[in-house]
């Protein structure tokens, strides 16, 4: 109102949607004043959606859902046109929307759908009971589908190529659907064959359904895992460790904590990372950039990583370290040449000159503690 710059906060996906709304000159404060939030169902990484129940001035109650496009679409029995008219979601119309989703996904766009349903005020539980209230997600009306570009950061493709040339196999584990995951992996150089199929590219639910022996058998073959959950990451880490790999995991969310803890080396994101993720990790990457990790040229054979919005599918890494006695990997082979923004939890300091080694001992000038 006073001409000052608008600050948009939230997750990268939320910020992208809100920024789009600002470009459309939407009046968020006006819209929010027309209703009040009575319950929130946070985004669930297993269900791939989150919802909110609001009550308007006229006491009408609406439940709104936002999440993975194809998953939200499957819950819709109606759709809303640009004139505000509601129509039945026929099989032909559902296929029409799925084609839109597939087309956007093939362009490496992250697809998000919005839907809502009306709710009888009598069905709203008391305040004491709302804590365990599961918002209804059936008979939804589709409002719209948006595609958001999550471009590779500058240097990521070169970093992946550096890994490949150094004998490092890079794998991507992401919550995106297979089409989006494939497109991003091709863009980043993780995949080179556009026609790659299972088990090179696999869905999380398929990997999850395997028994332990089957997971161990396919783990080394996987290059891309789409529609994965945090638990799928954990299962993959365990399978790789069973196969004899020394595993390092990076993540930024609270749900990544089990995988970070299970890994031999945990790397968390310093900007987008939650405190739980940071506490569960051994190293904090201050700029959230994959290129900052690989420029240290670690001695390794295998790396797997999964998608976060900010760093484009770079949140889970696995390193197969050469030389069993090492038990870790070297962060800086040439400290005077390669400088990384890393935080040493051993001595509790930031290594300004990039001289902190992890060869069984922290050799930063400020620390000589053994890392075991």
From TrEMBL:
Family matches, as Gene3D superfamilies: Calcium-transporting ATPase, cytoplasmic domain N, HAD superfamily/HAD-like
Keyword Magnesium: yes
Top-level taxon of the source organism: Eukaryota
SUPFAM superfamilies, sorted: HAD-like, Metal cation-transporting ATPase, ATP-binding domain N
Cell compartment(s), UniProt: Membrane
A cellular component term, taken from the record's GO annotations: plasma membrane
Entry keyword set: Magnesium, Membrane, Transmembrane, Transmembrane helix
Pfam families, per database record: Cation_ATPase
GO MF term list: ATP binding; ATP hydrolysis activity; P-type calcium transporter activity
Protein name (database record): Cation-transporting P-type ATPase C-terminal domain-containing protein
Organism this protein belongs to: Aegilops tauschii subsp. strangulata
UniProt lineage: Eukaryota, Viridiplantae, Streptophyta, Embryophyta, Tracheophyta
